[in-house]
Amino acid sequence: MKNILFIPICLLISVGFSLPVHAQAIADSPLIWERQKASLGSVMEEYGKVTTEFFVVNDGTSPVVIEEVETDCGCTTVDFITDTLLHDQIGAVKVDYQPTGFGGTFEKKVVVKTNIKPAGDTLYLEGFNIPYPENVASYYDYKVGNLGFRFSSINMGEVFTNAPKVKYVDFYNFKDLPITLDDAHSGLPPHVKINMIPAIVPAKSRGLLAIQYDGAEKDDLGFFDEEVTFQIESSGNEGVALRLLTTVQEYFAPVPKSEVNQVPRLGVSEVDVDLGKISSKELVQREITLSNMSPEPVNIRKVVTNCDCMQFDLPTYDLEPGEKTTLKLSFDPSGRLGIDHKMVSIFSNDPLNPTRTIVVKSRID
């Protein structure tokens, strides 16, 4: 039997759940949804359906009748009955998603129709389908011990300092025994956490690693190529090493248009540097002017190059309004021939352009 849950708002708050009254409000509707989009992450068809719930509160004075809930796919089912939400009552719409054999990103719609808004409020499910491969051995051909992965490294992409990023990585347990994480001896750095889904992966079965990377805990900016090791338990403890590729960026809140001229702004005199034709036997130098183009202090957080052959010298990392400094670059082309590109990245507290990249091009004889 389909049912919808109605809970007095005071009871829900007493167990630690509350709805932000300011968020996700729909125009001309008293219904306020806790969220309108649910991310299911990566899902695998052999583990069956994935369930999530959408909570809603009636913030109006009149009763709201939920008359119908529609989905746009047979893979999505909804658990509900037509009923009434009185003032300050909370309802829960339970949605089940059945993973399909089609791989890739998915987005499904759930439309909740009411007497107040017959066209309905639209809710979304999103995630990534991982179908079961025809040939497990060739699909998970990168082995770390008895675990098979698709790739030799895991690209975490950009991670911002305001919130950790989670990436789901599928693997295959080639062992003849089930495995689980040894949390007591994880060996992971503080900025990386790993969970296994399911908690116990049976022998000759697939599982997921939920890898969480915390940019704030990393406490550094730029590109990082790291090897992290975690422990699994089976017949004994075993270390599993993973290579993570991550770019950590500092997060800045969006700047209102009216405040664009009031925030720190870093000026870079040249971002496309062409050294022209140079000899591999001579050190080449170039100077770049950095300036504070705002009424606020500019702080240069970090300067990095993508090659030891490119060195830099920066006399100060703090610029007062109107102040300038010189970034001196030294490129050693020894051992190199042909067209060459090097990059210098400057991280600062400029919220409009927190990362500035200088590209240095040359033709080496």
From TrEMBL:
Keyword Signal belongs to the record: yes
Gene3D superfamilies per the UniProt record, alphabetical: Immunoglobulins
InterPro entries, alphabetized: DUF1573, Ig-like_fold
UniProt signal peptide: 1-23
The keyword Signal belongs to this UniProt entry's keyword annotation: yes
Keywords: Signal
Regions crossing the membrane: none
Pfam families: DUF1573 (PF07610)
Annotated protein name in UniProt: DUF1573 domain-containing protein
Organism name: Echinicola strongylocentroti
